[in-house]
Structure formats: C-alpha cells, structure tokens
Amino acid sequence: MLVRFMSSETGEILMFADPARSLLQAIGKATTARGTFTREEMPAAAAALRAAVARAAAPPPVDDDGEEDAWGKAEPVVVLGQRAWPLIDMLERTAQGGSKANIVWEAPADF
Length: 111
Known about the structure:
single chain; alpha+beta
C-alpha cells in the first residue's frame, strides 16, 4: 500500500506503508488513512524525525549468509535517514510557508 504526503507549499511524496508507519510513529502521529500536520506541529515533527535518525545512525548489521540476488549482488540496506529525509525536508520547508501551510497524507486504509 502507498501513502501519499501532500504539502501546500512543496511537492508530494509517495512511500510504502511500512516506512511511512515508522516515520509517523517516530513523530507520534497515528497511522490512519488520512492525517495532517499543521504549520505549528511541523518544527517539532521535523526535530523528532531528526532525533530518530540520529538514534538509528548506525546501519544494522548485514547478515553475511552468502545469499545474493539474481544478479549476484547482496541487497542494499536502506537506513532510516534515507527514508526520513524527504519528509523532514517537506516539514521544514512547509513550516516556513504562510499561516495556512499544511501537510496531509492519504492512504487507502489505516496502516
């Protein structure tokens, strides 16, 4: 399932439900089918994500069991910071918008 984040000030971000759930939970938001960030919530939300990225800065250990994909390469690890950066950027840039600046997200169902 895809979750779409839309900002009144920037573009939109699409991400799979599992990473979106992790990011929203780090901020303290419910993972409902629809939700919003007000302009007042955005700085604290961006700071919470930055703190979560700092806590998870060390990449998880790679299981060296010798498994490779079809092309003979091990699957790369995507860390929290790589997933969080687009949303952090959206939060910070939208927070600088006008008094009605907001971010909403939509998904087909709660995730």
